[in-house]
Amino acid sequence: MIDISMRPAYLAPAALLLGWLVYQLSRPSKLPELPVLGLRKDEWFPTVRAAWRNTDEAVIIPLMTGTYVLLPASDTDFVVEAPGSQLSSHKQMNENFQLEHTVMDTELSLRPRQHQLIMTTLTSQAGNLIPEILDETAWNFDKYWGTDTKEWEEVPAFDTMRRIVGGVTNRVFVGPACRDEALMDASTKYALDVPIASILLRVLPNVLKPFLAPLIILSARLHTHQHYQALKPTIERRLKEFDARRADPEVAQSLGPEPNDWLQWSISQAKELGDPVLYSAKKLAHRVLFLNLPSIHTTSLAITGTLLDLVCHNKPEHIAELRTDITSVLAKNDDQWNKHSLAKMHKLDSTLRESVRSLTTVALSRKVTSPSGVTFPSGVHVPYGVTVMVPGHSVMHDKAIYGPDADEFKPFRFVDQGSESRKAFATTGKDFLSFGHGRYACPGRFFASTELKVILGHMLLNYDFQMETDRPPFKCFGLQRLPPRNKTIKIRRRENIE
Ligand code: HEM
């Protein structure tokens, strides 16, 4: 009697499987000749073992700007839960942006009072500010994308998005004063100065910093000063009116409704705390400028990524479906853009979430603050002062989590999941780390979500796009993924907006 495993019904598939395995392991790679993370050349099947190792083990990433430990995804929950006495997001942020050098008023980074204001007032007011956000969006699109309904216009994607986002965000920060060219110029340039200066500073050996740092931060210093000069008259008038309103109800009535923006909330907060240093014009201007740092670049990257995803995958039906999503919701809401109508534009929301999913390389960067270091559940021990992070891109493209089409751009992916399990753009999770997760997750994400939906919605309703077939890849710069700087697209103002 022959062994059961020797029967042809078992032997044939086993032989096929073996042949396929041998072919997979021996076929020439289509990939370029690049160093492979986790590869040990003297091993058998080195790439297979590197893949296994990278899923399960921590790896060290040496970069010009510092050496980091990338933990395995299984440590994510631990990193999310760890208190500041073990792992600090704030200390990491300070070091990443070299805030002690790049921010002229270091008190802002040491005592980040603005976090509370972002999480409470900015988040709760975002819905009420939609009319202002829409007004500024329309004004900026007219300015940077034009109003010509006849000719196609070629516009640089990232650069125009950066300016539009800068204008819209600063409308919420300082009100109509955001239309001052000098103010906007200083804010957007400062938001670029700091990341560039911080990269140079991190590359520099510590002994050279005292000598070279003043030179490296010259541009940030200049733009801080220009920003202050441009905003000073508005702040001084606001401070006077703030006191006058409280001193005399008749004056308050004659002045009309109090402004509802970041500057005004900062004045109120400073006055409540009663410390005159906090309500000096310089400090208040600096607080506005400082908030440009975490908001402009991130939001511009998100909208540029979404724009390129929609235009360069040659799927006009996606744009048509999004327009229907927006117009049908607006029709049922008296044509009003408000928090109720935005909340119902599920396809718009899903598109943003889908696009932003691809921007993150690594997530949850934290500095080890415990003097004795931290031992992670994976068993790796990381000493004091080292920066750790967890995988972002691989988790957010994991086929076991996002399905076999995880690598595709599917704008309605999150709508298709059904209303029960649908996740909104700003909802974080250990499988969606674009805004971080847990107690240190981005406090500005609900505002960013409102702003991005208005910008994207306005863009889709008001412009046509020449579709393209090749989505240009994002460029990797260290651990950052950046859209190609010089990429242009062709747009034309729509004549009949349904
Ligand atoms: C699409 C746009 C945005 C993205 C993708 C984004 C992403 C992030 C991420 C990944 C973090 C780190 C979270 C962590 O490590 O756990 C963060 C932190 C932060 N974000 Fe955002 N952000 C965006 C927009 C904004 C906006 C508009 C604001 C302000 C109005 C803002 C304010 C902040 C602040 C202040 C922090 C630091 C929090 C801390 O130190 O604890 N962000 N953001």
TrEMBL record:
Protein known as: Cytochrome P450
Species for this entry: Coniochaeta ligniaria NRRL 30616
Keyword Heme assigned: yes
Cofactor (UniProt): heme
Pfam families given in the database record: p450
Entry GO MF terms: heme binding; iron ion binding; monooxygenase activity; oxidoreductase activity, acting on paired donors, with incorporation or reduction of molecular oxygen
CDD domains in alphabetical order: CYP503A1-like
InterPro entries, sorted: Cyt_P450, Cyt_P450_E_grp-IV, Cyt_P450_sf
Family: Belongs to the cytochrome P450 family.
